[in-house]
């Protein structure tokens, strides 16, 4: 994630299939089929505005 005026920083990391990670209210799940990484948050706030990257 990269918040305005800041450098990029790691939000979540998942390397195993069906592994769940959470940070700052975000939850992510890595799925092998289809090859996907889902990022979710139950409720968002103005302070969540940022660029989100997946690598």
TrEMBL record:
Alphabetized SUPFAM superfamilies for the sequence: Immunoglobulin (SSF48726)
Keywords associated with the record: Adaptive immunity, Immunity, Immunoglobulin domain, Signal
GO BP annotations listed: adaptive immune response
InterPro entries for the chain: Ig-like_dom_sf, Ig-like_fold, TCR_variable_region
Listed name of the protein: Immunoglobulin V-set domain-containing protein
Source species: Myotis lucifugus
């Amino acid at each position: 994630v990269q918040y305005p005026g800041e450098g990029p920083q790691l939000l979540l990391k998942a390397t195993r299939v069906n592994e769940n990670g959470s940070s700052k209210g975000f939850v992510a799940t890595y799925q092998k089929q289809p090859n996907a990484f889902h990022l979710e948050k139950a409720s968002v706030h103005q302070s969540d505005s940022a660029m989100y990257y997946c690598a």
